[in-house]
Design a protein that fits this description.
2 copies of one chain form a homodimer. With 334 residues, chain A is an alpha/beta fold. Chain A is 42% helix and 17% strand. The first copy, chain A, has 12 helices and 12 strands. In chain A, the strands form 2 sheets. A 6-stranded parallel sheet of chain A has the order 2-1-3-4-5-11, with helices on both faces. The first copy, chain A, has a 6-stranded mixed sheet with strand order 7-6-8-9-10-12, with helices on both faces. In chain A, strand 3, helix 7 and strand 4 form a beta-alpha-beta unit. In chain A, helix 5 crosses helix 12 and helix 8 packs across helix 9.
Chain lengths: 334, 334
């Protein structure tokens, strides 16, 4: 293998070619610095000729800010993906960038968080992953804010969290299903340790039992497609079969629709009602026409951005985003 | 807003607390450096007490390598998304990380590439976006390799590219459709400037005309869902209607299936054959059961990784990945 020689001209090289001091080169590249126009032009010409670029890493060391936001994501669910996509675009707009780490959703994120701290990121966003109290404390001490989206544990020092309105949204779903005439229910849960899944189940069940209806049959779909296929087969084979099934995510609801339709030949809506949670794009496709409680991605980004752009001195501890019911064909009985 | 004090203890602080030199602190944190075990332990204890972490940004300045790979992505198609997901996991495995920029697919990527160079990334990966010759030359001069995945222009100095086997794969689709008994065809193209779409159309059309069959009817679906809905309506309303339609991506083929099924009430396969290209997950869902030419994501990552991990002194100019036909219900006539 050939050894690489350094391809980066330095500020010193630029200063020599321009016939100015190194300090002048530095000032030329600092937007608000006071410097004679002629000098700045000389520096820019020399920099151009040499292919010199001011080193943002070096600057971030001096300023203590890297302009990078660390993002830790678990293997991607469609909803988290949509948030990531929109978030990346928003950061690029303001000249910041994502340093991305992936993490197995099942494990806590100590290793990636430790690594991100070494890169001196300005903030850390966790999407669908959990952080330990120890790491949260270390970030807090180093004044690196952590914002947990979706699967966060609450009330952890140094961690701000953003979630959908899990309890109220699931009540809305329960009310809608009852209004459509369904009377017995199933619930497809995410992993048992998921706070989001717990809250959605609690909101759904509380509304049913408050009306004297039985609590839903349940199965665990694990927030992924393979798990949802198994859970769907389990729920749909109970005797009697629940008249309507609420799934903790749209992704799992789509899998349930496929099992019901293609393995059991059931008419969606008429023979079994199906509802999801999140409002992913596929839910609106004519093929699925899935009723869901939708949390707009723009709204998530709208809350996330000011937290990350130094516009807020204090992070709110916990932000709950209100979504809305999208009533579609998957919960129509006639 | 409260002003932040520096939260980062320095190597100097650690050296003082441990009662050793600053050079010893540096050696303690360098894996292969020679240092007495007792000294290393003293340094680690002091570092722990202070919450000190060696600064990776500073190290990367010295080594000229940041451990970051720059990735520029356009608004995300499902296939690019799957590649990004797998790629991120692979980089994490070897202790590297993605610095992600998003870019409108329609524009060239001069701005993000310029920014990535300033962050001293070790390499740049373009997913579904184009680079200008000027930027490619600048990266080449700075010895930052660029690898273009999917929509790359060919033969640009300093840019290695990876694509699916567009021509051969589309011939395979044509052969399969003819074997299934279809005799008249449509093609749904991506943007006219897309090399991938051009090649898929050329391979498909060449095989048909070589057998004396008419060239396909065509419409432009722009590689996105909204465009594909329009193109599907156009293709399916021609008189006579093409017996089978090949779409340049699976994503567009799914949209065509929805238009055919839900707007025109056509039986997929029997009344209109549909084939795609890429092999995204949704193609295998029972609901769509889409015939496609599939390029395994693992294979893309398998080619991408050695290029980025310094295992190859010279990048191959152009890598073509062979996929395989997935024959499914969307092209079954009976």
């Amino acid at each position: 293998m050939t050894k690489r020689t350094s391809p980066h001209p330095t500020a010193h090289d630029v200063a020599r070619l321009a016939g100015v001091s190194q300090a002048a080169v530095s000032r030329a590249f600092t937007t608000k610095a006071s410097i004679a126009l002629a000098t700045r032009n000389k520096v820019f010409e020399a920099a151009n000729a040499l292919g010199y670029r001011p080193n943002l890493l070096a600057r971030s060391l001096i300023k203590g800010k890297s302009g990078m936001v660390g993002v830790v994501i678990s293997p991607l669910s469609p909803f988290c993906m949509a948030v990531l996509d929109a978030f990346s675009a928003r950061l690029s707009d303001v000249g910041k960038h994502m340093l991305v780490f992936t993490n197995d959703g099942a494990k806590a994120v100590d290793k990636p968080v430790e690594a991100l701290m070494k890169f001196r990121v300005d903030a850390i966003v966790l999407i669908g992953v959990r952080v330990t109290a120890k790491q949260a404390r270390q970030c807090h001490e180093a004044q690196v804010p952590i914002i947990a989206f979706s699967r966060s544990p609450r009330n952890m020092k140094g961690v701000a969290s953003i979630t959908s309105d899990n309890v109220a949204g699931s009540e809305v779903i329960a009310r809608h299903l009852i209004a459509q005439g369904y009377r017995t229910f199933g619930y497809m849960a995410g992993p048992e340790e998921s706070k989001a899944s717990q809250e959605r189940e609690a909101g759904f069940t509380a509304h049913l039992t408050s009306l004297g209806l039985p609590a839903p049959e349940r199965a665990v779909g694990q927030f992924h497609r393979a798990g949802a296929f198994e859970a769907a087969r389990s729920l749909l084979s109970r005797t009697p079969r629940p008249e309507a099934i609420f799934c903790a995510t749209d992704e799992m609801a789509l899998a349930l629709i496929e099992v019901a339709r293609h393995e059991l030949n059931l008419a969606i809506g008429r023979e079994v009602g199906v509802a999801g949670f999140d409002g992913i794009e596929e839910a609106a496709w004519p093929t699925f026409d899935l009723t869901t409680y939708s949390t707009p991605v723009e709204s998530v980004i709208g809350h996330l951005s000011p937290m990350l752009l130094d516009e807020q001195p204090e992070l709110p501890l916990h932000t709950v985003i209100t979504g809305k019911l999208e009533a579609r064909g998957s919960t129509r009985r006639d």
